[in-house]
Amino acid sequence: MRVIIAGGGTGGHVIPALAIARELQDLYSAEIQFIGTARGIENRMVPQAGYQLKLVKVGALRNVSLATRARTLTDLPLAVFAAGSMLKEFRPNVVIGVGGYASGPAMLAAVLGKIPTVAFEPNVVPGFANRAVARFVSAAAVHFEETAKYFNHAKVTGVPVRKEFFNIDGKTNPQTPTLLVTGGSQGARALNLAVSGALSGLMQRVAGLHIIHQTGERDYNEVRAAYQKAGISAEVSPFIDDMPAAFARADLLLCRSGASTVAEITAAGKVAVFVPFPHAADDHQRKNAEALSSRNAALLIPEAELTADRLVDAVAGLLNDRARLLQMSAVSKSLSHAHAAAEIAQMAAEAAGIKTREAQNGV
Questions:
Q1: What is the distance between the alpha carbons of residues 273 and 237, in angstroms, rounded to a whole number?
Q2: Residue 277 CA to chain centroid, in angstroms?
Q3: Which domains does the chain have, with CATH numbers?
Q4: How many other C-beta atoms are found inside a 10 Å radius of the C-beta of residue 268?
Q5: What would the mean pLDDT of 78-103 be, rounded to a whole number?
Q6: Do 151 and 142 meet the contact criterion of CB atoms below 8 Å apart?
């Protein structure tokens, strides 16, 4: 079985793509090739994982200047042609699009070449690349039931997440309520500033509070100084190497709501106060957060409403009500998908006409 996985740009695209690639190799001994762009994180992560990466030149069409959009529209036909040449050379049985700049040209080339395609969409509302090919793909793997309506032959699989998140037992120390703050690997200044301003209020409202805070490099010194001044129990670092271990210790998270973060939270059965990044394409972070908050598995605070008082009320209200936390945690866990990567790999095999593991075993 030969598979091309196209897309990338951010870890939210590339990390699930690598998990799918590993399952394809384990289950079907697949030969994998990635297609990405020179500007994405795939340039580091894909070769590190041992996979071949081919590049096409294409940029953004949404939330960019007219000049950038014009360059992208000029580059797009060339990118489709380049991707088509890569498909002819590699001769894949199926092409999987994971979203991001390279996904659109590769998936369009596959559709034009009558090669089976599977779209992976982790957000509630599909990104531009997946919307462009939604009606033409052979199948689609989605994270939320609300997303299935955009595609033909969609299946809710969830987002592939590291197994360590699923292995978290959920037990924490009720004497030390713990808040984990993370704005992603680069940090989130809005979260860092809001927490810094809320420290005195949190100390007054939550007895024994401990905070684990990933700040990102830029704000580390400023945030660390705020904690030292407040005298609150905390572990402040630019980057957390072992995030599953931090999740395991946390009763509550304050974070953004990218698709991978949401999937990790549900895998661990944790409760979050989401502050969606307001400039995300198609406002997808808000919609991801709403998918959990509407089910009473999380709280949502728009960044424009993120004041110190609002933050203190939300965090204290949850950490001081363990019964409510446990109830929300159970709902969060129920939304997780432990076998997402394997299910997406199986969908790719079915689209390609390759016998699945179950069929091979006569199941």
A1: 20
A2: 13
A3: 2-161+338-360 (3.40.50.2000), 165-334 (3.40.50.2000)
A4: 26
A5: 94
A6: yes
Identity at 356, one-letter amino acid code: T
Which residues pair with residue 121 across a beta bridge? 142
Task: List the alpha helices (DSSP H) in 298-362.
Answer: 308-319, 322-334, 340-352, 357-360
In this structure, are strands 298-300 and 139-142 parallel, antiparallel, or unpaired? unpaired
Burial class from Cβ neighbours inside 10 Å (0-12, 13-18, 19+) for residue 212 reads: buried
What sign for the dihedral angle of Cα 287, 17, 260, 281? negative
Q: Which residues pair with 350 in a beta bridge?
A: none
- pLDDT (tens digit, 9 = 90+) per residue, 188-200? 899 999 999 999 9
Residue that has been written with the tokens 């959920």 in this structure: 170
Task: Supply the DSSP symbol for 355.
Answer: P
Joined together, the tokens standing for residue 272 give 């979050």
Choice between 61 and 21, residue whose per-residue pLDDT is larger: 21
Residue 218 carries which DSSP code? T
Q: Encoding tokens for residue 201?
A: 């209020």
Q: How confident is the model at residue 62 (pLDDT cuts 50, 70, 90)?
A: low
Beta bridge partners of 37: none
As a whole number of angstroms, the distance between CA 101 and CA 26 comes to 28
pLDDT-derived band at 65, boundaries 50, 70, 90: low
Residue located via tokens 């598979």: 3
CA–CA gap between residue 187 and residue 193 (Å, rounded): 11
Length in residues, the chain: 363
82-94 residue pLDDT tens: 999 999 999 999 9
Q: In what order do the strands lie in the sheet with 233-237?
A: 233-237, 210-214, 178-182, 252-255, 272-274, 298-300
Contact 264, 235 (CB under 8 A): no
The token duo for 97 is 């699009």
Q: Model-level pTM? A: 0.83
